[in-house]
Amino acid sequence: MDVFSMVAIIVTVGCLSGIVTEWVKRRPTDGNLKGDMQALREEVERLRQQNNEVVLSFDSTLKHVERRLDNVESRLALPGSNATDETARVTAERQ
User: Fold this and answer.
1) CA-to-CA distance for 84 and 81, rounded, in angstroms?
2) pLDDT at 83
3) What CA–CA distance (Å, rounded) separates 18 from 32?
4) Domain that holds residue 51
5) What's the CA gap between 93 and 80, in Å, rounded?
6) Which tens digits make up the pLDDT trace of 20-78?
7) SS3 label, residue 77
8) Are the C-beta atoms of 84 and 77 separated by less than 8 Å?
9) How far is Cα 43 from Cα 94, in angstroms, rounded to an integer?
10) Quick one: angle between helices 82-94 and 30-76, nearest 10?
């Protein structure tokens, strides 16, 4: 065995021992893993609930804005004009 091979083997063994040491340090225990999984499940549930609330709030706001827009359009449209018919058609499509 020449000097280069010995140096390569020593470096490889040193790197592998460092990797194994870090893996052992960071390896979760059973209790810790179960707690972490439960915490992640709770966080996902909170995020889902928050997402649902945001979607419902956005939908409610959008409907409110549409109603206000319909009200403004109906006040601006003159009776008997095409605008009134067009507004009625657009309003019916939105609903």
Assistant:
1) 6
2) 54
3) 23
4) 3-94
5) 20
6) 988 888 876 666 778 888 899 999 999 999 998 888 888 889 899 999 988 888 888 75
7) coil
8) yes
9) 36
10) 160
Taking the C-alpha atoms of residue 13 and residue 9, their distance in angstroms, rounded to an integer, is 6
Q: Write the DSSP symbol of residue 1.
A: -
Closest C-alpha to 70, from 84, 89, 95, 87: 87
Report the chain's terminal Cα–Cα distance, integer Å: 84
Measured between alpha carbons, how far is 33 from 25 in angstroms, rounded to an integer?
A: 14
Minimum mean pLDDT among 12-21, 40-49, 86-95: which range?
Answer: 86-95
Q: Are 28 and 36 in contact (CB under 8 A)?
A: yes
DSSP 18-71: HHHHHHHHHPPPHHHHHHHHHHHHHHHHHHHHHHHHHHHHHHHHHHHHHHHHHH
pTM more than 0.85: no
